[in-house]
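As a warm-up, study this chain.
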Amino acid sequence: MGIGFARRAALALAGLSAGVLLAGCGATAPSSSQKEAAANAAGLIGQLHDDVTVSQASGSSLAVARRTLGDDSDLLAAFVAYTDFGSCRKLVRDVGATNGAVARVAVTLRSACGLLERGSRLFSAAAIHEDPRALVEAARTVDAATPILVRAQAQLGGAHA
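Now compare it with the structure written out below.
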């Protein structure tokens, strides 16, 4: 029942996530005001930092990764974080920055997306194949995006000045 439940939950959440993404395809973009875009960017950076923390807690070592893969609650928490990483480019688009300083922050965030999305693919492989080594690699890949997120946060601080 343990891992089977987690797999079913992951598939259900994946379906729900896909539905939410598709539902948003026809929606209008958020307001283009720089103030709103800056708030959106700050929220996204905070969310990604939190997700990196979850990824580290789930795959910091082989022993931790084995425990995560065997625990439905831990696996579900990791799944949610890695789902955000897999949607990185869409999340950055949704910030709404089209010009100015916040647009430069969005460029920096997009540069982190390659690492975050790769981490998401590695997590999927780890969960499907119950591979703790892949989960550790996913966490390391995601962690490599941390300096880019810190740079984006610093740029955003300058955008408020």
